[in-house]
Specification:
3-stranded parallel beta sheet, globular
Length: about 110
């Protein structure tokens, strides 16, 4: 994933990876990474645990704004099936940007009028 991230970044699009295998991220050195000690196959969290999954995504978006040095890995403090996940607040401006970008993309593809 880190190799793809670097190419996307070269095109001017910031990226962040969500990793569950820290040694891979340390070796490949993607531009930005958040790391969780979670089971394989569940980088966003438990199935159907919307608050947990939203928390991971919000932390990843936050990393886009807070990581200043390429190759930085942020260890997220969350534990599998043990934490409350509804206290993380969105990063200001991210949601609006994502909605705007989605609408622009859909307009180009003819999906939004």
């Amino acid at each position: 994933m880190g190799l793809i991230q670097r190419e996307i970044e070269r095109a001017g699009i910031p990226t962040v990876g969500i990793s569950i295998v820290r040694r891979f991220s340390e070796k490949v050195k993607p531009p930005r990474t958040v790391f969780l000690r979670w089971p394989f196959g569940h980088p966003l969290g438990e199935p159907f645990n919307i608050d947990q999954q939203r928390t991971v995504l919000l932390e990843a978006f936050r990393a886009l704004y807070t990581i200043e040095e390429p190759g930085t890995i942020i260890d997220l403090p969350y534990r599998w099936r043990k934490d409350e996940y509804n206290s993380v607040k969105p990063v200001e401006g991210v949601e609006c940007y994502l909605v705007k970008k989605y609408n622009e993309d859909m307009t180009i593809k003819g999906g939004v009028s």
